[in-house]
Amino acid sequence: MFALFDLLSLEPLLISPHWSLRAMNHQKKAVYEDILPGYVDAIPTKLSQFAESIHSASMRLPLSSDANAARFHMCVYLAAERLHQRLGLPEPERQKIPCRPKVMEKALNELRSRVVDELSTPIGSPVTTPTKPRRSSLTPLGTPTSSPSKQPPSPLKHSPRKSSPLKRLREAAAEDDDEDGLNTPARKRRFPGAVDLPPVSESPFNPDPTTPTKSSYDRDPSDSDEDFIESPSKSPAWSPSRSSTSPSKPSSKTNIPKKVLYDRRVVKIVDFVKFANTFYIPDIVTTKLLNSFARHRDKFKKRGEWPLACGLVYGAYKRINHRRLEKLGETKNIIDKIHTWQKGGMTREYMESFFGIVEDYVRNEAWVRQLERDYMGFRGKERYEQERSEYEARTGGTPEAIKHNELLVQLGAMVTGANEYQSQAQQEYYEVWKQNALAKAAARSQSPETL
């Protein structure tokens, strides 16, 4: 008994040595009868070839064990689904596919999007399995043909090439040297004490002595661009072992464009929407946040735009979920989540330091007041009045001082009169500075002649 993997279910089958392809054809025929019940004619060749192509291409796609057992059924179903109208076949059915409905639907969608749509083979041409493309092939003229993106165009091998006067002069000089025997080893031995030089073909600047190399300085206006394009077959790589001082051949990897790195200073609209959706911000509120972001983003060009995005999302979240943030530790948790999902590469302390600055920018905008009325109710009004009174007290209380401070904020000032520092070290520093200032003022008042 021999073990063989069935192409239909990929399960090992125990069969006799007299097994032939008839059993396999019988199984495939049964699959077509399950998918196309009532169809008595011969299976069209285009349908069978397309089904085989889908099955071969789908082998790179892993499926679950249930879906894997019905892989060929689903491939035949997808092929019939795509071709039944053009080939005059009945509507394919999926009732006899040996798979659970939910698993089958998921596998069909995955095969349809990742295999069938990628094949996209025209109906007029026979469907074949995808094979690895050949790098080059010879035409009847003997010209190597390849992809234009991988190999530069080169002139025909047997076609006459255009030559400039300088090129013809070099060829004539080379012929004279050959006639005089200057390029032969016997000519070198005529001179006593002559040094054996490497052959001309070993020079990195002239790989092929029969094909003079042309530089941009030797170009004639009558020459075409094809004369300056070397064929890869006539330009062998120069080995470093021959000359340590010769420049190395540029690697083909240098032509591969480098991957564009993500700019941490810029926030794209798509990233902002995903960032807001992560914290379940409503769609209407996200639109308002985008308007505020576009209005204030110029103020954060030097520091990056992610501090502004984090501050806007945090300002909207704390008003929508103000009851949740009253619980112990919830504010710290939400700030940690914002720091986790941001892409600006900021530290948690640096990001949190901008929350108050962004709050001063948007505290009087309409969407902020709307969120406080919708989600916070009367408590939002009390909180607004309290924050407004504290803000006026820090800025001076007068309308002129408040207007001056708001103008500084609009111009992008990060430190204004609204910022208040209450740490113990700053209080001690302020007390020492105040005592020194009062002492100097008293000394000057007693002796006005001294400066």
SSE order and pairing:
Elements (H helix, E strand, L loop, with lengths): L1 E4 L6 E4 L5 H15 L9 H14 L6 H5 L1 H17 L13 H19 L17 E2 L5 E2 L19 H16 L4 H4 L80 H10 L4 H14 L9 H15 L1 H4 L4 H12 L6 H5 L2 H8 L3 H11 L1 H18 L3 H12 L13 H23 L5
Antiparallel strand pairs: 1-2, 3-4
Helix content: 40-55%
| Overall mean pLDDT | 71
Largest sheet: 2 strands, antiparallel
Q: Give the amount of beta strand, in percent.
A: under 5%
Morphology:
elongated
* End-to-end gap: 114 Å
- Structural class per helix/strand content? mainly alpha
Spatial order of the strands in the main sheet? 1-2
> What value does the Rg take, in angstroms?
40 Å
E-strand count: 4
Spans of at least 5 consecutive residues whose pLDDT stays below 50 are 1-24, 121-127, 136-150, 155-159, 185-198, 200-206, 211-247
The number of helices is 18
The topology string of helices and strands comes to: EEHHHHHEEHHHHHHHHHHHHH
Protein name: ORC6 first cyclin-like domain-containing protein
GO molecular function, one term: DNA binding
Family: Belongs to the ORC6 family.
Biased composition (Polar residues): 122-131
Task: Give a description of the structure.
This protein is mainly α. Among the domains are: 2-119, no CATH class; 269-376, Cyclin A, domain 1 (Orthogonal Bundle); 423-451. Helix content is 49%, strand content 3%. The chain has 18 helices and four strands. It has helices spanning 21-35, 45-58, 65-69, 71-87, 101-119, 165-180, 185-188, 269-278, 283-296, 306-320, 322-325, 330-341, 348-352, 355-362, 366-376, 378-395, 399-410, 424-446; strands at 2-5, 12-15, 137-138, 144-145. The strands form two sheets. A two-stranded antiparallel sheet has the order 1-2. It has a two-stranded antiparallel ribbon with strand order 3-4. A hairpin with a 6-residue loop joins strand 1 and strand 2. It is elongated. It starts with a strand and ends in a 5-residue tail after the last helix. Residues 136-149, 231-256 have a biased composition (Low complexity).
